[in-house]
Design a protein that fits this description.
Structural class of chain B: alpha+beta
Oligomer: heterodimer
Number of strands of chain A: 7
Helix content of chain B: 25-40%
Family (chain A): Belongs to the GPN-loop GTPase family.
Bound molecules: guanosine-5'-triphosphate, magnesium ion
Order of helices and strands of chain B: EEHEHHEEH
CATH superfamily of chain A: P-loop containing nucleotide triphosphate hydrolases
CATH topology of chain A: Rossmann fold
Radius of gyration of chain B: 19 Å
Number of strands of chain B: 5
Protein name (chain A): Signal recognition particle receptor subunit beta, a GTPase
CATH topology of chain B: Arc Repressor Mutant, subunit A
Largest sheet of chain A: 7 strands, mixed
Distance between the termini of chain B: 36 Å
Distance between the termini of chain A: 24 Å
Number of helices of chain B: 4
InterPro entries (chain A): Gliding_Motility_GTPase, Gpn, P-loop_NTPase
CATH class of chain B: Mainly Alpha
Number of domains of chain A: 1
Keywords (chain A): GTP-binding, Hydrolase, Nucleotide-binding
Radius of gyration of chain A: 18 Å
GO molecular function (chain A): GTP binding; hydrolase activity
């Protein structure tokens, strides 16, 4: 809910979005919760599966519906500008939803648990292949030291040279906020080099 | 390190979100803000109950995702109902800043300044 205040016209409000992607349990919801002014909210999308192509028990095509949960948070940036953060579902089988979540995003953060690098392959793969949305990689330190340098991780995950890689603590408000600032700086530096028709 | 990101060839796309129904008419994304066009009038009588609830809720501006979560209506259904309400002129769809056009840079800079204020 965006509170109505009398000093600004309701209709002049606008919004923008960033996507928080990454592997299962990497700290996406924790990041959103650290910076959001509301408790992360979960909403559900019902998907219609045209035919059974995975978890395949019968070879017969049929219609199945699946419910996918995603969570989001909100930051009021000024009296007319609201930023939403949407976490992508961690399970790789839900990558098909990302087009809907990512569409119209200013940028994306791929949260990586450096102890389980393989879990973020799908997310990195997705953002490397689509060249429309600027993204950065944020290594969630959890409690320990990082075993690898950012550059080692860049090489292992085949991350493009121009994509910033930073480390952070998803539980820490200011550290998580720093990740969002880095993404905006990166998006501004890249603006104009992408184009996408929306709407 | 032995990790290598695997490359995927083609991606299968087994699901549809809303059947694409809302796509061409209104830019209704999860983050798009919605306001009831005229909060001072009662919702028309012939509306479906869900649409009426949306009109009452959006007397205060909310995003598509928030409407879906608060009314417990799945996102795809919410988008279709909103698209119909917009066709009837009953809701206002706010501009959504995507950063994909250089003309939006000023807004992105405002966003960055907002973040800098909040997260020192
Ligand atoms: N110790 C520690 N725990 C963390 C940190 N970040 C996240 N966690 C914990 O790790 C678990 C997973 O974090 P989530 O934020 O739920 O991860 P997620 O990416 O949203 O997970 P899915 O949505 O299930 O894919 C939770 O129990 C968190 O409390 C961290 O920096 N340090
Ligand atoms: Mg989560």
């Amino acid at each position: 809910m965006v509170s109505n205040d009398s000093s600004s016209d309701t209709f002049s409000k606008m919004s923008t979005k960033i996507v928080i992607a990454g592997g299962f349990g990497a700290g996406k919801t924790t990041l959103v919760g650290s910076v959001s002014e509301i408790e992360p909210v979960t909403t559900e999308a019902v998907m219609t599966e045209a035919s059974v192509v995975h978890d395949d028990t019968t070879a017969v095509p049929q219609k199945v519906t699946t419910t996918v949960a995603m969570d989001f948070g909100r930051i009021t940036l000024d009296e007319e500008l609201i930023l939403y953060m949407f976490g992508t579902p961690g399970q790789a089988r839900f990558w098909f939803m990302w087009d809907d979540l990512v569409r119209g995003a200013v940028g994306a953060v791929v949260v990586v648990d450096p102890r389980r690098l393989a879990d973020c392959f799908d997310a990195i793969d997705y953002f490397e292949q689509q060249q429309r949305i600027p993204y950065i990689v944020a290594l969630n330190k959890f409690d320990g030291q990082l075993n690898y340098t950012g550059e080692e991780i860049r090489e292992a995950l085949e991350i493009s040279d121009n994509v910033p890689i930073i480390d952070f603590d998803a539980r820490d408000r200011s550290s998580a906020g720093h990740v969002l600032k880095e993404l905006l700086v990166h998006a501004l530096a890249n603006s104009g080099s992408q184009s996408e028709l929306v709407g | 390190m032995s990790y290598r990101r695997r490359r995927r060839g083609s991606r299968i796309r087994p699901y549809t979100f809303t059947g694409g129904r809302t796509r061409s008419r209104h830019p209704l994304m999860v983050q798009t803000l919605i306001s009831t066009a005229d909060p001072s009038i009662d919702p028309p009588r012939n509306l479906m109950p869900e649409s009426e609830r949306i009109l009452l809720l959006c007397r205060e501006t909310r995003s598509v995702a928030e409407i879906s979560a608060e009314l417990k209506i799945p996102l795809g259904v919410t988008q279709v109902l909103l698209s119909d309400l917009a066709d009837q002129g009953l809701v206002y769809i706010h501009p959504t800043i995507t950063g994909h056009s250089p003309s939006e840079n000023q807004v992105l800079e405002r966003a960055l300044r907002g973040l800098e204020r909040l997260f020192q």
